[in-house]
Amino acid sequence: MPIEIESPEQLGYSTIKYNLTESSISDTLFSDIQLNINDLKLCYGDHLGKPELRKLIAEDFPNLSEENVLITAGAASALFIVATSLLDKKDHLIVIRPNYASNIETPRAIGCEIDCVDLKFENNFSISVDDIRSKIKANTNLISITHPHNPTGIIIPQDTMMDLAALCEKNNCFLLVDETYRELNLENNYPLGASLHNRIISVSSVSKAFGLPGIRIGWLISQNASLFEKFLAAKEQIFLCNSVIDEEVAFQYFMKKDVYFKQIKEHILKNYQTVMDWISAEKRMEMIKPHGGVVCFPRIKNTELDLKKFYEILNKKYETYVGPGHWFEMPENYMRIGYGWPTNEELKQGLKSISLCLDDIKE
């Protein structure tokens, strides 16, 4: 079935009062961005993407230039390009789980062999290099992770990232790092994966951190020249080039990114504290503290509850939506809560709805 059939945009935003399903910050209003596209020529764009935009994306990272950046139609198409370029039926993929469907469903459709490495609540959802190493096979061609991790918000230490890159080099495979939350880290900045090693492929977009999902701009970054050429060939076969309007909007936004992002960061930190206050008081649930992104992955302690009824009451009675566990191939007592999208008051009411719903189920 379509993997986004339960998403708010498909269900209809008018049916949701407290939307805690979103995995991004709230959408940016066009009127809030100072744009001038009157002189833009509506031509075929550079197949790699607007050079000035690629330069802005690469300039903050050592070892990278615009020649390492390929602009795509959102991160989703970048992930599709990577999967279809590197995986065949004869290949083997190792993917971290929980994960969201884009990183799993395309490889399944390709028909490659897949092994999941399950992150455990009891281990703080930390990634074990040894667990991944134990899954390596002669035909392993790709290891897929998200960082900060979606849906838990966990940060991967740089030493672990380098160990994974070394593992890929030793076994002649690649490490895909979905970094769409990178700018939303809650603590110290950390390096872009692709800047660290030529076996790491970084994917990101303007959707999650900057509230611009409607312009469909993402990118993939790699220092590996032959691999990059293969990705470009795949892009050309799928959509040739991006919308020059979308690229221009992203470019002009990035020219003033720091100005726009200051308000975003303030909003995230305020909402993050609201979530932490709620979870510390809500003793029927537990959560590993997130350190990046705008999502967290708490779970209901009592697995004997009627969880189907819980979600029905939460949706219908309280008009509140979260991302249920099955979105990430996890048990239904887990839920992803997005705290970047709603206003602080909406977030508070949505979290209160979860607690009230637990009261109803108990009765």
In short:
This protein is an alpha/beta fold and 363 residues long. The protein is 37% helix and 15% strand.
Which architecture name of the largest domain does CATH use? 3-Layer(aba) Sandwich
Per CATH, the class of the largest domain reads Alpha Beta
- The helix content is 25-40%
The computed structural class is alpha/beta
CATH topology of the largest domain, by name, is Aspartate Aminotransferase, domain 2
Report the CATH superfamily of the largest domain.
Type I PLP-dependent aspartate aminotransferase-like (Major domain)
Overall tally of structural domains? 2
Ranges with pLDDT <50 over ≥5 residues? none
Radius of gyration: 20 Å
> Strand share of the residues?
5-15%
Q: Which word captures the global form?
A: globular
Give the topology string: H per helix, E per strand.
Answer: HEHEHEHEHEHEHEEHHHEEEHEEEH
How many helices does DSSP assign?
12
Provide the descriptors you would attach to this structure in a database record:
363 residues, alpha/beta, Aspartate Aminotransferase, domain 1, Aspartate Aminotransferase, domain 2, 2 domains, 7-stranded mixed sheet, 3-stranded antiparallel sheet, 12 helices
